[in-house]
Structure formats: C-alpha cells, structure tokens
Design brief:
It is a single chain. The two termini are 37 Å apart. This protein has a domain at 17-92. A hairpin with a 2-residue loop joins β30 (513-520) and β31. Mean pLDDT is 88; it is low at 1-74 and 897-903. The strands form 15 sheets. Strands 5-4-36-35-34-33 form a 6-stranded mixed sheet, with no helix packed on it. A 4-stranded antiparallel sheet has the order 3-59-58-57, with no helix packed on it. A 4-stranded antiparallel sheet has the order 6-7-8-9, with no helix packed on it. The protein contains 8 helices and 59 strands.
C-alpha cells in the first residue's frame, strides 16, 4: 500500500515553462508569492524525517519488530513505509492474525441474508489526472499520467489480444481487445487482493491472491486459483489449487518448471504439481520455521517478517536446480539466496559473482528469464543501501549471461546509471530505486534476450543487455524542458508518460502487433515493445488502458454535495481521496472524472449544499480547502493571488503528530465546526471559509505518543478514539470525550479486559437526537484469530450514557475488521468492513448484508449524500452508492433492476 508524495518535485533553479514564464522567473518576480506545491512539499520533508520517538513523541513504525525510524529514507519512501505500517497496524495490533481468518469471515458472509436494493457503481468513468479544468496550486494535472485507475499488481497477456490485469484489492479484469473494455472475472472469490497473475504453457491463468509488494500487506489472500479457459470463463472458489496451506499469506511470485509451480510467499517457498491440482501444497523452504503458524514462536510480534520469500529462479536447462531469493526488505539475518545441497537441504549460496549474497545486501529481489534460456536478469534491493542512503534502496540490476540462476552475475545498472538515462528522479531525496523495496518488475523481450524492461518508480529499457539504458516511462514530466502547465495540452510539449511506482509487466500481441503492458499505482498502460522515443529517451507512444471499465481505485474517503452547476439543482458532485491518486471529483454531468488535488488523498469533507466547497486531506492532516472545486487553468503560476486552493492544516501537521491518514469531520448539527485529530483534537468554527491553519484551536491534548484514529462530533460533543503505541509492541487505545470549546474533557475508563476490546478504534456514529447515544467500531480480528494480548471480541458497541458503559451489538456479524459506521435516516445502522457492508434495521439485533452487487472488497467509509443515497468508498473497487429507501424491497424487484442494468 504505498504512497508517493505525488507532489511534483521542483527546484527553483530548474526552468519550467509556465504560460510563458518559468516558475523560477515567476518566483523571482514576486518573492512573496507562495512557493509552488513541489518546493513547498520538499520543505515539509524535514518534519516527516524527524519522526523518531523522543524527538516529537511520535512512535516510529514497527515494521520488523524494530523501529525503522522516520529518517531512513526520503519523505517519499518513508511515507510509503509508514502508510503500509499504519494500515497494517489497524488490522493486526495488538497481535498476529492466524491463518484462516479472512476465509472464515467470507464463509460466514455467504450464509447471511441480504437486504433489498442494489449497489450502483459511481466511479465507472475514466479518471483523468491531467484534467485541464483543475490545474490549481495543489494539483498534479499536466504531469503526464493521463487516465488512471488504482494499483495494478499482476498482468498476464497472450498473443490473441487477451490481457488480464489484477488490482491490488480489486480482483482480476479481462480484455479481449489488447487492453480496454475490461470485464471483472474474479468477483466470486473470497479475496480480490492480487499477488501475481501468470499464464502457463497450456494457456491456463494462475491467480495468486495476497498482495505482497510491501512485504507485509494487510490484505492477505486465500491461496492460488487456476482458470482453465481464461478467454471465456470466470474464477470460482472451487478452482483453488491445493488446500488451505496458503490462506492468510501474501504471494510475491509464481514460477513454473519441472512439472511444478513454485510460490514465493510471506510464509516461505511452497510448490505444487501443475497436473494434479487437488493435493496439498508442499513447503519447500522456510528459513525460520519456528515463526510459522503452529510454531513455538508464532505469537512473536516479528513472526510475519521471519519467512518472507520474494522470488524463485529455475534453471531452464535443469529444473531441479533452483535459487530462492529470501528476505525482509528492512533486513534480517536470514536474508539471502538459497539452493539445495547434495543432501537435499537448503543452504545459503555464498557466491554469485556481482550479485550480492550477504544478508545486508539482499532484500526484495525480482528475477526474469529470457524465452530462449540464454539470459537471466535480477533486480536487488539492499537493506544496507536503504539504511545508509536515504535517496535510494537499489543495489543494482544484474545479468547472468550463462542463462543459469547460479551465474556468474554481472552488474549492468546501478542508481547512477539509471539516473543518467533520462530519469525524472535526479535530485537529492528522489533517485531511482528510492522505493525498490516496493517498486520492481522485470520483463525480457521474448524475441530478443538483450532487450529488457525494468520497473522501479519509473520504467527503464535496455536493448543491449544493460550497456545503455533509456527511461521510456519517467516518473512524471515536471522538470523536463518540454513540460508546460498550458491547459490546452496534456503535459506541455512532452509525450504522455505512465503513472509512477511500477509493479507488474507482461508482453502480448494484438493483431500481430506486440505490446508491453505495465501495471503501477495508476493502473495499466501499454506501448509497442519496440516503441519510439524522443531525444531524451522518453517514450512517444504510451497509451493508457484505464478507460473507466477497470475501476481499481483505492479510496480512503468520500464526500458528496449538490453540484452548483446542475441547472436542475438535483445532481451531486462526488469527491474522494485515494491511495496515490489524489482527490477525484465527479460532477453531475461529467463524462470523465477529474483530479483537483494531488498526492495521496486522505479524508474528505464536502459541503452538502455546495459540492464545490471541498476540504481535501493530504497525509498527516495536511488539509487544503477550495470553494470552486479547485478549478484553475494554471494562472496561479504567474499570479499566485489567483490560486483557488488554500493550505489550512492544523499544527499537528507541522510536527508530524498525526496518523498517515488522519481523521477529520464536521459537527453533524453545526457543519461550520470542523474537528481534526492528531495528538491534539483540533477545532475550527469557520467552515469552508477557513484560510489558515492558525484558525484551528486545540480542544484537547490526547497525550504524547497518542494519535487520533476516529472522530465524531454532535452539538459540540466530541468523541475521539486514539492509539499509541499503535503497533504490537505495547499497543494501547482509548476514547476521550469532551466539548468543542475545550471544556469537559475526560478519558473513558477502558481497561484491556473491559467491555471494549483492546484493538484499533476505527469509527464512531452519534445519535443526532442524543449526543450521549453513541456507537463505536473496532478494526482487527477478535481473539479467535489474534494471538496478541487483550484482543477481545466484537466489532460494534453501543452506549447510552456517553461511553460510561457499553454493550456489544455485533451479534451475527462476521469476525472481520470494521472500518466505518453510519446512522441512516430510518434509524438503521450501516457498517463498512474489510469484506462487505452490513445493515441493522431499527428495532432489530441481527445484521444483514447491505444490498447486492457490491464487490467483495474493503469498505473504508460510508457517507449519506444530499440526494439521500448512501455512498461507499472502497479501497480497491472505487465508489458505489445505494438508495436506503430500497433496503426493504423484495428479491423480484432487485432481479428486475439487475436485468435493466444488464440491458
């Protein structure tokens, strides 16, 4: 789950043409002008880098049982790690999830009744991050990424025009036209988290669930599935290979050889026959088996990081000869390459030529083999480099000219060679490989073993086995002489590029024309395998395949308001913040969604009466506000007074005393009162008229090392959930209650073994008619699946006395992390979880699945719009809506509705 600081990097010495003036000229002409978002963001870097415990009181993320510290990398890479760590903490702390947790919850979900009504997809339109309408000071529009979707972590393609793309938490999509016109084909599976996609020699499609690009993703999978007829069929649960051996794991790679498929997982390396799919998976190698489920150290907080496997290389001339790349990205003593000794045991490989074999320099590794077996290539991320050089984690790209994974390997590229190949990452803090622990792919041209595509943050290419490189897919076009903010062009005179942060690659053909397909944090793109480049080595022929039919956008939030431009006054504007794709806005009559805020999009506030009044949150409570939907043609770059977005972050943003995605809300009785949470509970009373962070006042200090995780406010009464430390080591949580004016604050008495579980507090809902009547939701799994102390049971609790006493109302809910509560006008309760949305009717105790046709993915936030509809922000399948007035409809009504949709 990465996050790039998607604010463009811009140093004032670089001349960037902006409507006839360079940015540096504009700044020189007006020294008091606000610095452009790029430079402003660099100035923020120091705050986020000084985030070690003891300097700000902030607990650095515990990624491998140790504190990584806040300054282990640039702001970009640090934010990516922190995002991953915090997202995971919410679902695991204070313990370790045992295998089978998601599978059991999904099985229970299948037996639950549904309400009436059907969900409608809202974000089923193309999303243009270069939309010329929104070239304001805080937008990335004109960077060149164009139409995007959410993170793609697996791609497979054949020579008949069929392409398969797997979303990070969105499942598999199929195209029969070489890309585009996509169809979802895995929605019946219990996990839509994609680890890998591969076509075998017989044309079967293998789908490994459990995304592992971050090494410890919270979205584990339920194993590997095989689709015998991928051109026409769809995946079903009965297509799983083997038994439950790979449940609750992540899978980094599948490799085939010698009649077996090998899987590199977060619990070691496993193998299975490719002919008899019914037998169990065999554990080939786990470096620290005591930490596996059932082992003597399974409950150790560092257990998830002790058996991580990244890839497998199989000798094409002798498939019994195999090299395993094993290791945790931040370093551990077991990191290294392993092969079988003569006695059948797996032993560390001591020498491979230039390719390092010592534990300090083997981290995340990707292999690729040429079709003729004459070459092997590898990317190696080094924990040692990452710790010593904050600008990169890349050790190098290597080639084995023997075609054997045993080498000898030769270094063919390092970060300096790639930096000189046309990379956009050429300044301190941003260099190729800065996120090599997260961004990697390798693909060899099947017709030319010397022609290789390599993915890091950018797409690199060599046609001579690494003697020289180009960067056909730069991070963005900001900084290049051809770039301009001109709203009549996508990206000035530059050719469009791809979204950054590369994860997946494949080569296939359509009508005899071979293409390379790349998947990244912005979806899927393609170009001819031997495409055209300009004088700088940048491709002139990238095509976005994100046409709106593949919606894998990973939303954290949603906000809805009446669209002031709708002549009927009934249409709504829908906004939402998402992972690495900024803030989207879809107005009532739009055919294309636009992006009006860049970076990672966090929480969102929208004025129900005017959908162009928007507060969009970047990470760490960095809040920006606009009153015109952030419409701007870029004129701010020459006249800063014409910017239409304003940074209004509360002081916790400056001290990094807030969660990566920090909560914010409005008072449900007084929408001009806003509440934001970091270490402090901040309040401002000017609504969307706010213009400065100084307008926030601290209503309450949660305490050093405590960070708000959920907020609710009604009639001036505020509920604030917090954690700190927020990871397994010493996890604590609490609820503070008080008034917006700073009076009456107190911490509720929440002992570890009390009525409320000792887990992450994710959401509140307050009765509009009685502020003492409150509901709270908890993330994580119950004690059934969590091995840590005080995990407790239940996910939803109710209080009628302001939190003095609580009752568990979870009833028949599946045991799965809960994310968002919403009280509906009829008095019912809606709940978003990591698997589905649920509804409890007024006067009832049991829960039903809320509506039909919502994909099985994480519902991060539920909000009611001014149109009366309930909106769901999902973290993997976009935004959906349902009309609560239809929840009591019968089955035939829903079937008729579905038939009308299909027609």
């Amino acid at each position: 789950m990465a996050s790039r600081n998607r604010r463009p990097l811009l140093i004032s010495a670089i001349a960037l043409t902006t409507l006839g003036l360079t940015t540096s000229q504009a700044l020189a002409a007006n020294p008091s002008a606000p610095r452009p978002w790029q430079a402003t963001h660099l100035a923020d870097t120091a705050h986020h880098h000084g985030a070690k415990t003891g300097s700000t009181g902030r607990q650095a993320p515990m990624l491998d049982g140790k504190s990584d510290g806040g300054d282990d990398g640039s702001d970009d890479a640090f934010n990516s790690m922190e995002s991953t760590a915090q997202f995971q903490e919410a679902r695991t702390a204070p313990g370790v999830i045992a295998p089978g947790a998601y599978g059991a919850a999904w099985a229970q979900l299948q037996s639950m009744p549904h309400t009436g009504g059907s969900w409608d997809q809202v974000t089923n339109k193309p999303y243009n991050e270069d939309d010329p309408r929104y070239r304001d000071v805080n937008s990335n529009s004109s960077g060149g990424a164009g139409k995007t979707s959410g993170r793609i972590t697996g791609i497979a393609a054949d020579n008949d025009g069929y392409v398969y793309a797997g979303g990070a938490n969105g499942g598999v999509f199929r195209s029969s036209t070489g890309g585009g016109h996509w169809e979802a084909i895995s929605d019946k599976l219990p996990s839509l988290s994609t680890g890998a996609l591969d076509l075998d020699d017989s044309g079967r499609l293998w789908y490994a669930t459990g995304e592992s690009n971050t090494g410890a993703t919270s979205y584990v999978g339920t194993g590997v599935y095989v689709l015998a007829d991928p051109k026409h069929g769809k995946f079903s649960p009965g297509m799983r290979v083997g038994g439950a051996e790979l449940e609750s794991t992540t899978i980094h790679a599948l490799r085939f050889g010698g009649g077996k498929v090998w899987a590199a997982t977060s619990r070691g390396v496993w193998s299975h026959s490719t002919t008899d799919l019914s037998g169990p998976w065999a554990l080939e190698f786990a470096p620290n088996p005591d930490y596996l489920p059932g082992g003597s150290k399974a409950a150790d907080p560092s257990a998830p990081y002790k058996n991580i496997a990244n890839d497998i290389a199989i000798d094409p001339k002798d498939p019994t000869k195999v090299v395993l790349a094993v290791g945790w990205r931040s370093g551990d003593t077991y990191n290294g390459f392993y092969s079988k000794a003569t006695d059948g045991s797996w032993q560390r490989v001591s020498s491979l030529g230039d390719l390092p074999t010592d534990a300090a320099n083997v981290g995340n590794v990707t292999f690729a083999r040429s079709a003729d077996g004459s070459r092997y290539y590898a990317i190696d991320q080094s924990p040692s480099v990452m710790a010593s050089n904050p600008d990169t984690g890349l050790k190098g790209i290597y080639e084995s000219k023997s075609g054997s994974p045993f080498g000898p390997w030769t270094l063919i590229a390092d970060k300096d060679k790639l930096m000189g190949s046309g990379s956009a990452l050429t300044s301190a803090g941003y260099e190729p490989g800065i996120q090599a622990w997260y961004n990697q792919f390798l693909q060899v041209d099947p017709t030319n073993p010397d022609h290789v595509y390599a993915g890091l943050e950018e797409v690199f290419e060599t046609k001579n086995a690494g003697q020289s490189w180009t960067t056909p897919g730069p991070y963005w076009n900001f900084g290049f002489p051809c770039w301009s903010i001109d709203p009549t062009k996508q990206t000035g005179d530059c050719s469009p590029t791809v979204h950054s942060d590369q994860h997946a690659v494949a080569i296939g053909s359509y009508h005899g024309k071979p293409s390379v397909y790349v998947g990244n944090d912005g979806g899927i793109y393609d170009r001819p395998v031997n495409g055209a480049v300009d004088s700088g080595g940048h491709a002139k022929d990238w095509k976005s395949l994100n046409d709106g039919t593949i919606d894998t956008l990973q939303y954290y939030s949603v906000g809805i308001g009446t669209d002031p431009a709708d002549p009927a006054g009934k249409g709504v504007a829908v906004s939402g913040g998402m992972q690495d794709n900024g803030e989207s806005i879809l107005r009532a009559h739009d055919k294309v969604m636009g992006s009006n805020f860049g970076g990672d999009g966090g929480d969102t506030l929208v004025d129900p009466k005017n959908g162009c009044n928007i507060a969009a949150e970047y990470v760490y409570a960095d809040i920006w506000v606009t009153n015109n939907c952030a419409v701007n043609n870029g004129v701010w770059s020459t006249d800063p007074s014409k910017a239409t977005s304003f940074e209004v972050a509360p002081p916790d943003k400056a001290t990094s005393s807030a969660r990566f995605i920090a909560p914010m809300t409005t008072d449900q009785k007084n929408p001009s009162t806003w509440v934001s949470g970091g270490q402090h509970v901040w309040v401002q009373n000017n609504g969307f008229a706010i213009r400065s962070g100084s307008e926030w006042k601290s209503a309450y200090d949660l305490g050093a090392g405590h960070f708000a995780t959920a907020l609710a406010s009604s009639g001036g009464t505020i509920y604030a959930g917090w954690c700190g430390p927020c990871n397994n080591q010493g996890f604590t949580r609490g609820i503070a209650v008080g008034n917006a004016d700073g009076t009456g604050w107190h911490q509720l008495n929440l002992p570890v073994d009390g009525a409320l579980p000792n887990r992450y507090i994710s959401s509140f809902a307050v009765d509009q008619n009685d502020a003492q009547h409150v509901f709270v939701a908890f993330n994580g799994f119950s004690r059934t699946w969590t091995e840590g102390p005080g995990a407790g049971i239940g996910h939803v609790f109710e209080s009628h006395d302001g939190g003095a006493t609580w009752s568990d109302i979870s009833a028949n809910l599946p045991d799965v992390p809960a994310d968002s509560l919403n009280l509906l006008p009829d008095g019912g309760i809606a709940l978003g979880t990591d698997l589905a949305a649920f509804y409890r009717a007024p006067g009832q105790t049991g829960w039903k699945v809320l509506g039909k046709h919502l994909p099985t993915t994480t519902v991060m936030q539920l909000k009611t719009g001014p149109d009366g509809k309930l909106y769901a922000a999902t973290h993997g399948r976009g935004i959906w809506s349902i009309d609560p007035r239809h929840l009591g409809r019968n089955e035939q009504d829903d079937q008729n509705d579905q038939g009308n949709q299909d027609n």
